[in-house]
Amino acid sequence: MIYHHRKIAIMLCMLLMAQGLLSGRLPEANASEEVSSTAEVVSVIAATYYVSQSTGEDSYDGLAPEWDGTHGPWKTLEKVSDQTYSEGDTIRLKSGDAWNEQVTLRGSGTAEAPITLTSYGAGNRPYLYRDNGIDDEVIRIDNGDGYVVQGLEIANARRGIRIIADGNTKPRFEHYRIQDNYFHNIQNLYGSSPGDEGTAIDLVTVPGDKPVFADIQIRNNIFRQTEIGYIMWSDGSAPRQEDVLIEGSTFMENGRNQVFQWSGQNVDVINNLFYYNYPTKYFGVGLTSVLTESLSGEEGVYNEVDGNEFGWAGTYPGDHDGTGYDFEKSGDYIHFTNNFIHDSYRYGVMFMGGQVFHDLVFDNNIFQGNTLGTKDSPFNVWLRGDNSGSGQFSGNQFYSDDGVTGFYQKPAGFTYANNTDPAAEPGFAAMPMVTQVVTGPAERTYTFASATWGAELRYTLDGSVPVADSPLYTGPIAVSGQSTVVNVKAFMTGLHPSKTNSIMVDLRESAEGDGPAHWWKLDETTGDLAEDSVGGADGSLTNGVWTAGAVDGALEFNGIGSAVDVNDASLVDIASNFTMSFWVKPRSEITLQPEAGNGITGDSGQRYAIAPAYRGGGANSTDAGAGVSIGTNGISVVEHSDMYLPAVLVDDGVTFDPEKWTHVAVVYKKNQPWLYINGVFRKAGYTSAKTVHPSADIGGSGLGRFDGLVDDVRIYDRPLGIQELQQMSVQAHETEIPAFAAQWDLLNAPGSGTEHPTGVAMDDNAIVFSGDGYYTITEGEVAGINGAVLKRPIDAAGFNVDFTVQQISGDLAAEDDSWVSFSVLDSPQFFNVVKPEQAQGIVVLMRQWNGKLNVEPYKLTDAGFQSQGATTLDTSALNHAYELSLEESGGIWTLMIDDTALNGDYGDLIGTVLAGQAYAAVGLSDKNGGWNRVAIRAVNGEQAYGLLQAPTWQDGFLNVGNVGADQATLSWGGATDSSGITGYRIYRDGVEIAQVDGSSSSYIATGLAPATSYTFKVEAGNGKGQWSGRGPGAHVTTDYEVPDDMSFADDWQLYTGQQGGQALPTEARLGSNGIVFMGSGYYTVAGGEVVPANGAVFKQPVDADQWFVRFTPEQLSGSLSANEDSWLAISLMSTVNYFDVLDSSKGQGIVVLLRDTGGKLTVQPHKLTAASGFAAMPEITLDAQTLQQHELRLVNDGGLWRLSVDNVLLDGDYSDMVNDTLGSNAYVQIGLSDKLNKQNRIRIHTVNGYAAYLPDQTERAMSPFWQGDTMYDESLLMVSADGAMPEASLLFEPTDILSVRSARLDKTFVEGEDWEYSEGKLRLLPGSSIPYMTEAELYPVQPAPNESVDKRGGGAVLLKEGSFFHDRQIVVTYKHAEGEWEGPTPSPATEALPRTLAKLDAGQPLKLLVLGDSIGTGANASGIINAPPYLADWATLLQRTLESRYGADITLINYSQPGTTTLWGIEEAEIAAAEQPDTVILEFGGNDGVGSDELYSPPLFRANMETMMSLFREENPNVEFILVGPSLANPETYFDGKQRLYPAELEQLAEEQEGAAAVDMIAVHEELLRHKAFRDMTGNNVNHPNDFLVRWYAQMLAGTLISSSDDANEPGGEGTPTNPNQNPNPQPGDSSATEGAATSAVQEASREQIAQWVREASHSSYVKLTPAGQAVDVQIALSEGLPVGMELTLSVDSFANPDWIGIYRWDQEQSEWIYVGGTLDASGRLSATIDRSGVYAVLAYERLFSDVPSGHWAEGAIKRLAAAHIVEGISEARFEPNRQVTRGEFAALLARALQLTADGASPFIDVPEEEWYAQAVAASFEAGIVRGISPDSFGPDSPISREEMAVMLMRAYDRNRKPIIAQDSGTLSYSDKEDVSVWARADIARATEKGFMQGVGQSRFAPELGASRAQAVVALSRLLSSIRSSQ
Predict the structure, then answer these.
(1) Residue 819 lies in a domain
(2) Is 417 exposed, middle or buried (CB count within 10 Å of its CB: 0-12, 13-18, 19+)?
(3) Does 1043 fall in a domain?
(4) Which of 1743, 1777, 1804 finishes a domain?
(5) Which parts of the sequence are annotated with region: Disordered (predicted)?
(6) CA 161 to CA 140: how far, in whole Å?
């Protein structure tokens, strides 16, 4: 029952909502196979759906305007198109958003409850557009009634709104309201004939029965620059219209006929404004404002044309009709009244001769100034004597120039009364026109003008018609709100007042405003200054090259050392809302990192066209600068602040042509970046948590250098509107041609002072060229012609053109010399008969002779243009398929057209000028001003249309296997090309690393760094020199080196986890900047006991109030959003035991579980106490990716201790745990619980501020520089001087360079690719990925606060704190000759520090205190600035070294503070002395050295140090001291002062004082500076050391305190590493079985070995392959006469997902697992037939797709069939679940699913054997599953309909059931069952009964609809399940 009563419906809604059953009507077509039609009552409730490009997601339900935690808006129009809508439904698009998509609307509404597409929210109209008119319609209404389209802006398309009606399904389509919309730029740029025009509103029917369109209202719209405003098309005669109203609309600057008033009755055109229909193209037909044909009516039912103004109706120059209104064909009951028609090119109104008009009323119209261009026909109304009918012409007034009369003729049958011809009075005032609209946030301002000079305008705002005393218009009218009606009318004394222009709505809300705030035009051509022509922020150019640009000049950057350094301090004032706009031509690829809202991914593999400016100011900085990195493969927007460099927007779906300028605009709106390419919106990125500012360093910086050209850089202090962006990027569109014409260079013919472009279109399987240019010879020059030249060269000996001439203007019989030509020439130019040196060859002219084809070939040589004689064929010149070819016989080369030989022998040309490469051309010469047209299907056997055919990747893949610590094996396949693949290019992180020949399918990438992520890509090339552009890629992270020495984990106690009763020890690896814990154990509670997961406990106790762990999850299996319970844990416990939720006596504390929720990190803290057990605390899901670096800490927040994750405070008070339970003796624990058995991994960087691993880094860092023959990690800053390649010097001359790495130790650079060593320098190579700086960057022109300091002699020196220099430095490890150090070396201070050394030798505890300035704090060690590899400060390194050397407990206390002097030290010493340390290190002098002599002279410095010593001795008389002199400040700055004088004072003080030693760091630094630059060793370029110099401090101090440095441990070298993939066990056999396998031996295989092979296997990063059961080694013995094959049955793990499992065989040669298959029995065992020896294992195969999110309705079926290797993705990452399935694709799915094979080819002529689906179609045909759409046609590329799919499914079901039984036909119960084809009804009934398919809502089956890939997979999955159960 359907309830119609409103109250009952509301009560029902409330009841359903209360029961949780209704949250809005279900979007029915989202999963048409999944939604049942049982809830019939709910269908009467209309739904409102919201769509927001900026804030929506297609995973939301569309039921709220913004995400509210439950509901939220959709994002794309594709999602809107996926639905079927019902009566009363509304789709609201967010105002201010833009979509470059088509939207298809399905379903039907009614007049009372229409389906509405409109807007919501404030701001600009929703903007719907396509790519410059090449694409089809913007809005498509598909076979439905009852629609409203309102309040939109529709632009840049071939069609705006297209309503398609199938009269074969029903006879009438009605109730359409199109109102208050703004249409503009609706055109077909490449159409060349009538029917090709762009149409704003287009009503279309399909072949067959013609329906009636009725009740159509088109009101209050604006049509501007649309070729046709409103029209109806069909495949033949026009369909009928009834009750059509076109009212209150403005038509301006449109082409051809603005409205077609065709075939119907009651078709009204009321009160519209038609101005300026001068078209941009000439179509050779009449062009009028309104054209009417075949209208009918009856008494009381009229076709009214009333109250309109028609002005300046015209045509392209030429003698063609350009009239205001055209009565083109006969019609009845037309009332043409009260219209104003003026200034037409030809006639005001035209009646076509011979037409009949009954009951015509033509009254009270006013004509003025018509026949502007045709004074030879001076008539306002072209009414002819041969017109007939009945009606009247009365009250019309003609105000015309002399000689221009009212009527041409007055045929009998009509009456004529009171027509004033000519009128005595002056004319009629023109209706006021809107000339400008300005939009503000709350109002719109309209400017009006009348074409009648001197008229006064009167207006009203209340909807009334203006009168003579209405308010006078004196200037723009400001109105607010879209409901305001502005009526304006023109009045002038002596003239009739105008019609009223009624503006109901705004044109659009535009963001147009001021120009750019900064503008670098880059037009200077010379010099090193790039001027900011607006804002004054000029830039300094280094190494760039001035060149031609997109707009005048441009700059070319080399990707290495060139850039424009802009003084962009003024840009800081622009924030949050701005636009960065520029043109680019990139030449190299970039690394496309994942999008992120934080992190530092933007520092790797980037090429910045605009470098992101550093806008930080400390760890908690709230500001960031935005930059743009661009490569040929995509674009990234990156923001820069302190420890913040994320790629907040990444677009890998856009490619950049290095030969073509591309316009890029990044528009920030409220700190969110929006990307536009060539004026087309691409996507929006993360909304930044920072306040974002624009940047302006053009060409990049040390973060990455741009390789290519940049032009016209602009910064606006506001977000530009999309209309402005399209206007700005119009140049990018002007040169675009359709993809189908990409093989051709088009020629433009001149004429009448303007160019006539060659028209190009598609017609069936041909490209159609058209034009009206004329080939003429004037003064020895040949004027241009229409035509085209094929870009690709051809073989002249194989010349062959397959063509059809569609039109030749003129006929030779009438001496009209117009022609079409085909040429084969030696040059890619059009032939020139007077200049054969430009091109020589064969030219064939084709003319029309009495309707037959006349063919005349010519030779064009040095001797000129020589005719070979003409031949006239006995076949039609037009619309006949011809073949023109060159053929050889007996040494004679003859031109053939079909079977007719033409005159001439062309062997002389074939063997000379046309030998080798030749070029084909087509020409069109039109002497008569008409239009020639030719369709070409193929040239030399290859299709003439479409893109230049580079290789493609059909099912292409790139797999990475055998991944080791330093190498990986790449394997690929799927590249195809008609001419064959000749080579492959391999790319790593966007840089080409190798090229192999086309026979190769694998490559071993070597020289990789351990535990480092890389992106590989492969591209294919053909013999034509064309390379694919979108080859497959793969991401891989190299393995950690298997440690020989586990001492790096000595501080951790590792736990053994369990999974399924199996013990799984926790593994540990040493990462580049942390210790990695790995494990697959699952934390379970069984029988009151806890079975622990994997994990580790930090043995050293920590202070709870300093708890701070920095970590990176590397693998976290499962997702909370999918209810998969796996986690990582970081805990702080009271004991060293692993936490136990059942037994708090084993430890109490804080346990923080870390889980993944849809890729975001969920943090779930708990308290574990004796009183309450395991208690959950408030949790949070961060807006941050799970697999990135995070920080967890305890924070004192106003006296409460709270948890903080990534500086986000969580709710909950942990004060009791910090103050009472844990205190200063707490233990940090790491847990890994992996329910899915995928081995979770976590990398711990620091614990309580210290590196999580100790010995390895400390030992390597503390290897004395002055000993041995190996230098470890010497730092360099590569610098380019004067444009030379960047270089730097090493301390010692290397004998063997072992490695060159980033200072972060996360990248290894390759010799010969990134660097070379020559002439005593390490030097970069072109294209190197090593960062570097230029001298211009190091020495800014002017000092800037906090950015630079004064330079001695003038200028400035760059100053950067944080990781700026660290990120740009590299470190080199190398061998050298021993004994090269000539500087000071330390010696044990045995006599100076006897008590200290005695304690150490005895292993006694030692309290060590440090007091100093910033260098004493360790600045700028990487651990201090929070950057990898987190090297500790020198005092901590010393502490660890002493503990390791002596086994003593060293307590380190550091009182140092940055920016301090010895005077501060005296004050602090009074406090620090209370610690009573055993040894004090006093480190001062850096800041004293720049102080005044009155306070810090050397003697005073010494005195201050002595005072500090005495203060410590007052508390501890036995204390001893180490006096450390400072390192040097940058000698080019004024920070280099008195420091060199202080070491002597310290030496003297140490000699005088007992228990004191001095360490002279000045002397060390001076020696280093003899060989290296200061910048190589600095952390800030002024006065702070980097890691390298910090190590010198630590080593010099250690040498003072270690009694024998010879005993110090030497770290390992960097020789050839061991292969972590080396298998110690012999491999099992892999022999192929032959006839007669008789016996077999089966034994268990190692589970560990299987896991190892799984890790090594070559597979996509989107595949998760895991062991899931038994593994065996099978050896099959062979004997004659017995059948091949054996049944193998393996057990399956209980936790394995049965949908994902299969039996696989290990292929050792290919390092891959081969899928065998398997059937699961009731006991949970998997069986399959095998035919060869090998290792077999049960594995789980989970296939991931980026567009099938967790929870997608078809996810289960897609993963199930992917695991069975039945379906694959469209690409590595995408499945495209909503894409339509073709008949060929579905046949292939069935064949794979049912394992069908073919014995022969299919009988279908449209299924070529070489097509990928051919065998599948043949097998499905042989199996009786498919039969074709005709005996010899299959239609493989046609979308499969739902009824076809149902039939195929049931045939497959019947074939595979055992036994096959006759099936009952079943009964159809669908409401549209009559629409189902008879042959499909029985199978649809059975498919419904079996559950294979269901209806699509409202009890409909919709047999004609297509099926998506997701729907097909779901249906196929259900089929297979049913087949298995029936067997």
Answers:
(1) yes
(2) exposed
(3) no
(4) 1743
(5) 1603-1645
(6) 6
For 908, other C-beta atoms within 10 Å of its C-beta total 12
Residues 1630 and 1541 in one domain: no
Domain CATH code at residue 1003:
2.60.40.10
What DSSP character marks residue 236?
S
Q: What's the pLDDT score for residue 1790?
A: 92
Of 1718, 1692, 1722, 1695, the C-alpha closest to 1705 is 1718
Looking at the structure, do residues 596 and 659 belong to the same domain, yes or no?
yes
Residue showing tokens 């419906």: 9
Domain that holds residue 482: 433-503
Residue type, 1385: T
Question: Which residue among 1743, 1773, 1796 closes a domain?
Answer: 1743
Distances (CA, A) of 1258 to 367, 471, 739, 1077, 1431: 97, 87, 61, 20, 8
In a shared domain, residues 1434 and 1560: yes
The residue type of 693 is: H
Q: What is the CB neighbour count within 10 angstroms for residue 524?
A: 16
Q: Which residues contact 1172 (CB under 8 A, 6 or more apart)?
A: none
Q: Which of 189-203, 373-387, 1569-1583, 1681-1695 has the highest average model confidence (pLDDT)?
A: 1569-1583
Tell me: cis bond preceding 1624? Omega within 30 of 0 counts. Answer: no
* Contact residues for 1044 (Cβ-Cβ < 8 A; gap 6+): 1618
What residues pair up with 155 in beta bridges, in sequence order? Answer: 129, 184
Token pair in block for residue 922: 């087509």
Q: Which residues pair with 985 in a beta bridge?
A: 995, 1019
- Both 913 and 805 in one domain: the answer is yes
Residue with tokens 């080409």: 992
Same domain (yes/no): 1438, 1558? yes
Give the total number of structural domains in the chain. 9
Residues 1398 and 1283 in one domain: no
Q: What is the 3-state secondary structure (H, E, C) of 72-107?
A: CCECCHHHHHCCCECCCCEEEEECCCEECCCEEEEE
Q: CA 595, CA 629: separation in Å to the nearest integer?
A: 13
Give per-residue pLDDT as tens, 468-500. 888 888 888 877 654 466 788 888 777 777 656
Average per-residue pLDDT for the chain: 83
Please tell me the distance from the alpha carbon of residue 1323 to that of residue 451, in angstroms, as a whole number.
Answer: 72
Q: Are 627 and 610 in contact (CB under 8 A)?
A: yes
Res 118: pLDDT: 95
Q: Measuring CA to CA, how many Å separate 851 from each of 810, 846, 872, 875, 880?
A: 10, 12, 10, 8, 11
Cβ-based burial of 512 (10 A; exposed 0-12, middle 13-18, buried ≥19): middle
Same domain for 1249 and 1263? no
Q: Residue 1910 falls within a domain, yes or no?
A: no
pTM confidence score: 0.44
- Least Cα distance to 319 among 361, 377, 269 occurs for 377
Instruction: For residue range 1474-1514, list pLDDT tens digits in order.
Output: 999 999 999 999 999 988 777 788 999 999 999 999 999 99
Q: Report the b/e string of 1297-1323 with b at 16+ CB within 10 A.
A: bebbbbbbbbbbbbeebbbbbeeeebb
CB distance 577 to 621 below 8 Å: no
Q: With the CA atoms of 214, 220, 225 and 231 taken in that order, what torsion angle do they form, in degrees rounded to the nearest 10?
A: 10
Shared domain check, 963 and 819: no
C-alpha dist (Å) from residue 430 to 343, 448, 620: 10, 12, 65
**Is the separation of the CB atoms in 1034 and 1003 below 8 Å?**
no
